[in-house]
């Protein structure tokens, strides 16, 4: 049985990865800055303290692990408020973790980065060879973290991979996780609470939405690779570009399928005639290495809508 450390293990993405790997029989350590109780829904998982100011403690935590999945990081909003802190954590703490992973046995290290390194908004055809152009602290600090992974990988300290995530969505594991600012999660919550779907941005803007189930499956496939992959940086998305209106209509359709009503879609009239911009978030590198799984939008949306109904809905539905 392989042992996995997930930093940010109690976060929105970290806990979903933990659930998936725990159900597969991995021994999962959930890294957190504070002591936490592990919910019963997370099988084969235990909490561990990750003290980012104590390299010796981090080294002890990493010593028994086969795989480190680094999901801990500051949000875009927090990075904008404190750019210095964004680099101290997203870059420097990542470097500390990489240093702690150095052993005689080369560990697998998976870093969860962001598609936003390429720009804001994301437009055009974007491959892993596209030049990152986003100067926002969220993007630049993550890119610096990627450079740290690349350096450690080149030295042979780790077998390192950077995953540039597009717009993930899905059901949270922990109720206290705040994932309701995400576009899809927000609309699903609106659907069952106010029976409307209000799009606050340009409805013609294109995004690459990816169910979290696809993210967790891709990570599983990378872990199972016996030999180092020929590439170490990947665009992780669905490879399917949808406008915000197209995604809203998908949510409207799934709401009708589950609850037999169609929430009205509302848009900002001041943005109706603006150009959303073409986007192709290219995932050919994943496909070439057989690391891309079938995308199941409906399954993830149904799960998310049912979660929203159970936690936020009314008896009227």
Q: What would the principal axes of the Cα set say about the shape?
A: globular
Number of strands: 14
- The SS-based structural class is alpha/beta
Given the structure, what is the number of helices?
Answer: 10
**CATH C-level of the largest domain:** Alpha Beta
CATH topology of the largest domain: Rossmann fold
Sequence stretches where pLDDT stays below 50 over 5 or more residues:
none
Summarize the main sheet: 7 strands, parallel
Order of helices and strands: EHEEHEHHEEHEEHEEHEEHEEHH
Termini separation: 44 Å
Lateral arrangement of strands in the main beta sheet:
3-2-1-4-5-7-11
**Number of folding domains?**
2
The CATH architecture of the largest domain can be named as 3-Layer(aba) Sandwich
- What portion of residues is helical? 25-40%
Content of β-strand:
15-25%
Instruction: Give the name of the CATH superfamily of the largest domain.
Output: NAD(P)-binding Rossmann-like Domain
**What is the arithmetic mean of pLDDT?**
94
Cα-atom Rg, whole angstroms? 20 Å
Family: Belongs to the NAD(P)-dependent epimerase/dehydratase family.
Organism: Leptospira levettii
InterPro entries: Epimerase_deHydtase, NAD(P)-bd_dom_sf
Protein name: SDR family oxidoreductase
